[in-house]
Amino acid sequence: MSEAIDYKVIGTRPIRPDGVDKVTGRAQFGADLNLPNMLYGRVLRSPHAHARLTRVDVSKALEMEGVYAAISRADFPENPSDLGKNIMARDKVLYHGHAVAAVAAKSLICAEAALALIETSYEVLSPVLSLDEAMADDATLLDDECFTKNLPETPDKPSNIAAVMTLSRGDVEEGFEQADVIVEGDYNIPMAHQGYIEPHACIANINESGQGSVWTCTQGHFEFRALTAKVLGMNVADLKFIASEIGGGFGGKTTIYLEPLAVLLSQQARRPVKMMMTREEVFRASGPAAGTHCKIKVGARNDGTITAAKAWLAYEAGAFAGAPMGPGAMAVFAPYDLENFHVEAFDVLVNKPKVAAYRAPGAPQSMHAMESALDELARKLDMDPLDLRMKNAASEGTQAPYGPKFPAIGLKECLEAAKVHPNYTSPVPEGAGRGVAVGFWFNVGMQSSAEVHINENGTVTIIEGNPDIGGSRASMCLMAAETLGVPYEQIRAVVGDTESTGFSNVTGGSRTTFATGMAVIQACEDIIGQCKSRAAATWGVDEDQVEWEDGQAIPSPGVNADVKPLTLADIAGNAAKTGGPLLGRASLNAQGAGASFSVNMTDLKVDRETGKVDVLSFTAIQDAGTAIHPAYVEGQMQGGAAQGLGWALNEEYIYDKDGVLENAGFLDYRIPVASDLPMIDTQIIEVPNPRHPYGVRGVGETPIVAPLAAAANAIRDATGVRINDLPLSPPNILAQLDNA
Amino acid sequence: MKVVFPDHLLQHTGGEREVELLAVNFRELLLALDERWPGIEEVLAKCAVAIDGQIYQDAFLEPLHNDSEIFFMQRIEGG
What we know:
The complex is a heterodimer of chains A (740) and B (79).
Chain A: H1 19-23, E1 39-45, E2 51-57, H2 59-63, E3 67-72, H3 82-87, E4 92-93, E5 99-105, H4 108-115, E6 119-124, H5 131-135, E7 161-169, H6 172-178, E8 181-189, E9 201-206, E10 212-216, H7 221-232, E11 239-243, H8 259-269, E12 273-276, H9 279-285, E13 292-300, E14 306-318, H10 325-331, E15 341-349, H11 363-381, H12 385-392, H13 411-419, H14 422-425, E16 432-441, E17 446-454, E18 460-464, H15 472-484, E19 491-495, H16 512-539, E20 546-549, E21 552-555, E22 566-567, H17 568-573, H18 575-578, E23 582-590, E24 596-606, E25 613-623, H19 630-649, E26 680-685, H20 707-719, H21 730-739
Parallel strand pairs in A: 1-12, 10-11, 14-15, 18-19, 25-26
Antiparallel strand pairs in A: 1-5, 2-4, 2-6, 3-5, 7-15, 8-13, 9-10, 9-12, 13-14, 16-24, 17-18, 17-23, 20-21, 21-22, 24-25
Chain B: E1 2-4, E2 18-20, H1 26-36, H2 40-44, E3 48-51, E4 54-56, E5 69-73
Parallel strand pairs in B: 1-5
Antiparallel strand pairs in B: 1-2, 3-4, 3-5
């Protein structure tokens, strides 16, 4: 438990340890490793969005000179999981770009040529490309064995609706009866991609007996190892996974695509195999965020008190079940203290790639709908939109819509900060509009391990099992420095492979600084205990007569010992005489992650002739608990804002009638570039999480949640027209303004 | 202690949303629930649980008190 005061190191902004190597090109990313005798793997992908795969024959490709391995469904274990079927199509292809075979050859050109020799036959089926189409009673089915889960009674026929979920409290209809004002809205958001700069890439080097290593860009090499072993029916102990540096993931690199293919090809070829997705493959065949259709109804009294709220949320899962409808449903009303609500959510199969996590998965879509509806409610009530939210805001003790009572949370503090922020109190620029919205994410703990080695000169090496995506090496060093009482500059953190440190779950869910940080703190406390024991032995006193203060062992007050304090360097230098090297370690399943809330506001200007939107200002305010390294926290907030604005304004998967993605490249899939955005203002609120030693909450997910509605609300303010469907791209804006 | 189930688990509890039970830790609670509704332990093992406001992905060893409030919920992961 911490009150976030008087830290010596936490809250400072040291230079990032990975910075020089990254800006000078020395950092080794997924595609940067090369091995002797290495081959190149390529994937043959389906040209159809929905078809029965009646034949795959790789034999002619295998006969080609320079080709060393070729695989298809026949090379994988029987009875595959959905993950296995996504890695390599079996009886059906379920999206354009679905993998149907792969080869390894001496060069990329040779591998590409070999793909052309693979013989395939398809029986083409109608693609199911929209939620409405997929949920219709007479819909074409993707999976004849998909029966809707969580219904009161087991359904007697299959459906594209893989699962439903409901949440409710009170009497919604009675709540609407009590309302003076009711607003309703119907909101659509298309699939969008995380847009990480580094495509998926890996190298597998497997020997004849099926043992070997995989170098890969991943958010979690332990889980990649487990998933790969499961898909291939291998023993995890036979595989070593090494995480490269990673050029972004945002949830999209929490699952595997290439790794099992590279392992099988390498095993067959008995050579290392490198595989890299092109950008086009990343768009077509990795996991974007779910497209959604959300309906919201909110009722309130004239004083702004919400009396009832209702949400209907449909999420595109892509080809296999597993859309983030659960977190979306639990998040939609989370910021508010509601007596009466009902949420119904659907996980729906469509002939598009299987969705993956994308920062706060499910929440940006559902909360865009709710926060847009609240904006309309504020207008009807003639009430300040921040006041409306404050009137209904959740705080400590509020029963969250998903069940438990909130512990200490910082939503009201964020709203208060927004209300007095200069970007809110200043007049809206002429011709522009201003929008506000609230964001939320649960955050998680999960399993982490860490080791702390004290080198012979007293410097410190941390080995952790989480790839560093958002600055975790720096935050681990800061927490270790604070705990041990030594300068930050004396500490280095490295990411160990799966054979050199203990299991850790993925770097995701805003968990790493919280959970792996806890492990590092505990490992440092282990070191402190050992140092006190060594000092006691050196001084000839009892262990409980030694204290640890400012990085050195000192006698406890009142202990009559004429001794000099022993620094970490003193104890490490003498370690051979007192019991050997100092090694601290901790493994845990972290509990008590603290929810994080945000308030965003933006001023936008719309060109009514072209539909182009200019972002004049954007302000992100968020409760971080305690900001271990504030510059990284601000970076997370700015990055989330940029991605959220991209999703709001331009990003979308555009399919033709046959289910072919038409904009599989950054030229046509328009993410924001630096010139599209203003400097994003940030304000960190610190309401410490009582369940973390230094008060940490996760910060990485929440920043992407509010920008979607903040932008939509600003455009409503600027134009007088509510545009419910994203993206708010020039063609959409022009069409809506013309229709108004 | 009060144990509350979300809508999607009601099919496993015969529609009962809330029960009062006694258990000294979460493991005992799961056993007691499984005795009442055979098979539910397997379903609940895939859920997260909030105990007195704190969310646990795996609460197996957590101690419980007579006045504890326990809410089962869907697991959260993230990106």
